[in-house]
Amino acid sequence: MIAVLGETTGYYALMRIRDQMKADPVGQLILSERPRINTRTVDLEELRNLPEGTFGREYVNWLDRNDVTPDSRAPVKFIDDEELAYVIQRYREIHDLFHTLLGMPTNMLGECTVKMFEAVQTGLPMCAMGAVFGPLRLSSRQRWKLRNYYIPWAVRAGYSAKCLMNVYYEKRFHEPLEELKADLKIPPPPQVPKSTSSNYSRLYKR
Q1: 80: annotated binding-site residue?
Q2: Model's pTM, two decimal places?
Q3: Please, what is the Cα angle at 31 between 20 and 93, to 5 degrees?
Q4: pLDDT tens profile 41-72
Q5: Could you give the CA distance from residue 67 to residue 148 in angstroms, rounded to a whole number?
Q6: Rounded to the nearest 5°, which phi and psi values hold at 176?
Q7: What distance in Å separates the CA atoms of residue 33 and residue 136, rounded to the nearest whole number?
């Protein structure tokens, strides 16, 4: 249902993303070659053999740690324009790479943070809705952290980073993750002080 929502509400945002890709040399190449990310196109064992700290190694470590497979992305069904259909398919398939670049886990706090980043980057209504309604599933303490640390960081990161739809990730797996993040202008994830727990408790006891 989330995939359907993304397809049925994102037409104008997808056109803007396509325009951004067509205006960028790497984006143009991606639209031309239409690479896919799944276990048939990406050799995960080869990524596991890359040095620690490289983007590819950290990506496959993230997959293993979170018990995730790149084969879990649903195919596009409700977009007739072939190029726009590829754009949203590409977005779906690089979502886990966003998690790796942003240093976010797959728990609800991490997903809401990534969705806010994606909302700023892509303008997709589905991402904005995920960032707004996802926190309803969080505890009050988690919502406090999200509101005061993670959401402000995700918004700043979304605006400061280069357009991540214009990155040919498959050609950059061998690069050190930190160097790639610096090139893409992705800031380090927010550092939530341990004292926030006691601050939260004092605040809500008043």
Answers
A1: no
A2: 0.90
A3: 90
A4: 999 999 999 999 999 999 999 999 999 999 98
A5: 29
A6: -60, 135
A7: 40
Considering just the CA atoms, what is the radius of gyration of the chain in Å? 18
Instruction: State the sign of the Cα–Cα–Cα–Cα dihedral 164, 170, 175, 178.
Output: positive
Token duo for residue 117 = 């980043």
Q: How far is CA 114 from the centre of its chain?
A: 5
| Alpha-helix residue ranges (DSSP H) falling in the chain | 2-9, 11-22, 25-33, 44-48, 55-65, 82-102, 108-122, 125-133, 140-145, 151-160, 177-183, 196-205
- Pick the closest to residue 13 from 71, 80, 91 (CA basis): 91
The residue among 30, 58, 26 whose CA lies nearest residue 44 is 58
Q: Which of 14, 6, 55, 18 is nearest to 166 (CA)?
A: 18
For the stretch 122-140, pLDDT in tens is 999 999 999 999 999 999 9
Determine whether the annotation assigns residue 111 to a binding site: yes
Asked whether 164 and 94 are in contact (CB, 8 A), the reply is yes
Whether 174 has a binding-site annotation, put simply, is no
